[in-house]
Amino acid sequence: MSDTVAPEKIEFQAEVKQILNLVINSLYSNKEICIREVVSNASDAIDKARIESLTNIEVLGDDHNFKIKIDLDKDKNQIIISDNGIGMSKEEVVSNIGTIARSGTQNFLKELSGDQKKDTTLIGQFGVGFYSTFMIADKVEIKTKRLGSDEPATKWESQGDGSYTLEETDKESRGTDIILHLKEEDKDFCDDWKIRSIIKKYSSFMPHPIVMDKETEVDKKKVVEEEVLNDKPPIWLRQKTDIKKEEYQDFFKHLSMETEDALAYAHNHVEGTLEYKSLFYIPSKAPYDLYHPEKTNGLSLYVKRIFIMNDCKELLPNYLRFVKGVVDSEDLPLNISREILQQNNILTKIQKASTKKILNMLKSMATKKPDDYKKFWKEFGNVIKEGFHMNWENLDELKQLVRFQSSTGSSEDDIRSLADYVKDMKKDQKEIYYITGENRQAVDNSPHLEVFKSKEIEVLYMVDPIDEWILQGMGDFDGKQLKSVTKGDLDLGELSKEEKAAQKEGKSKFKKLSKFISDSFPNMLKEVRVTTRLKDSPCCLVADEADMGANMERILKMTNQAVQKSKRILEINPEHPILQNMQARYDKDAKDPKLQEWTGLLIDQALLAEGSEIENPVEFIKKINGLLQEVSAK
């Protein structure tokens, strides 16, 4: 009939040229997406035919095996994508293809309800994916015949210029053939490897077979056979009991390009008001770009087994960006390009549930496989700590997961949980003690720890810069407040009679010298007080409870932030020979010029011991040299 009846030329409906130009040139960022869209539409058409045949199986005739076939014609620079789905009548072609942004799939969904709707895998909600074909084709043809209709087949043709032609055509079987006449610059889409890689990337888990002809040799004769490109079922859709541990690890390596096994994985099928499948992996090694500003999450998103995107940042909070895996949703709607997710309630629910699942995975690993958790913490601990300022609703879980070095350990590999600390606390101990600093060696030798070591009280070492920030969001743990050993007064329980007597005597004996020291350095010192904190050192500097600590000041300066220097409290050890000698010298001559010089040396020494800079290093060296000369001359 197409030979005798002239094609009917029809203008597109809607604001055609402007909209079509937008669809072709702006809606998609990647040309290969157009193959995914056409294949996805073909899958939709098969689903429609399958559902329609549920009540009338005879409508399928002898063709019960649904499939999508791709043919490549390099001589003509053509790609033909065919399906044996529901097809379209002439009226449906005009309605669905001739009207931009109208979707036959969307209307079809409205007519379904209950189990029928749940059983479909229709994704083309907006009816514009087809027009992405004009990114690589300068002409597109459609030949289609409606399932169960006696109406002749219809041929639709357009060059994407604002009009299309319609005519009857010869096509005996149901379904749709889409012929893409490739542009010269896009003829590489006719390469076999190119199409295979696109199908593997975007449609390898589609529910219907996608086939291509493949030439093989049988008994020295060349034979053309259909090869199924997507014959491997997605691992996350299979039952967990049917999957071996090796299969899970192989998929992780395929997904992440890692060579080592994952430390842990979790496979979940969520059903109910929200339906999705997920497979999460905890890697054993941190990627090189873990702290890169542009680092994205490691989850891939599928919707009804159709690949949507890698590194979907909406699926997990950023502090879990190291997690690898997939989420396959049955309910998630997409925007018109399928490339950018709409912010919606479904996505929020998936993210919250996935976050909880992963945190529980880590908690289980910490409990059942502590050695694996040590490996994990070494690689990803600082990233987890970011969650204290990103994920308040999971703060309790994060407190269970966080680990720190400790005064009870012998190296940086010895880490402790807050739960371990509380379990081993002294009988009368009321608080969780910690110290911050640049590294383990610096804090381990701090004079602030002397009394804690003498009383065998554990102190947590917070030696990562981020620790200063997580402390602000930590609050308490198990009803115990966290207390810095470098701030405020200390309450280490009831003092012994000897300690009480020594403290009382020291305060009385050193009262005038303390005031002298304080008055000598009014711009630096807020107060000078006698302490029981020190055992071996003559003095140390302490921040007031509400003031910024020395380590935080140091970190902010390193990031070029303006820091207002706060006055410090100088705590002195009344038992130390240096302080006793200074007290004797003060009693002999309160105006002795050496007293202020020695006080300056003690303050500089205390600054160096805590890791802070001294104001005048050259002057400090001169004073030390002078003191050595005096000693050596005696």
Briefly summarize what is shown.
This protein has 4 domains: 8-228, Histidine kinase-like ATPase, C-terminal domain (Heat Shock Protein 90); 235-378, Ribosomal Protein S5, domain 2 (2-Layer Sandwich), CATH 3.30.230; 402-484, Rossmann fold (3-Layer(aba) Sandwich), CATH 3.40.50.11260; 497-546 and 561-633, Up-down Bundle (Four Helix Bundle (Hemerythrin (Met), subunit A)), CATH 1.20.120.790. The chain is built from 20 helices and 23 strands.
Please, could you describe this protein's structure?
By secondary structure, this protein is α+β, with helices and mostly antiparallel strands. The protein has 4 domains: about 10-230, Histidine kinase-like ATPase, C-terminal domain (Heat Shock Protein 90), CATH 3.30.565; about 235-380, Ribosomal Protein S5, domain 2 (2-Layer Sandwich), CATH 3.30.230.80; about 400-485, Rossmann fold; about 495-545 and about 560-634, Four Helix Bundle (Hemerythrin (Met), subunit A). Helices cover about 35% and strands about 20% of the residues. It is built from 20 helices and 23 strands. α8 (about 345-370) packs across α9 and α8 (about 345-370) packs parallel to α10 (about 395-400). It starts with 7 loop residues before the first strand and ends with a helix.
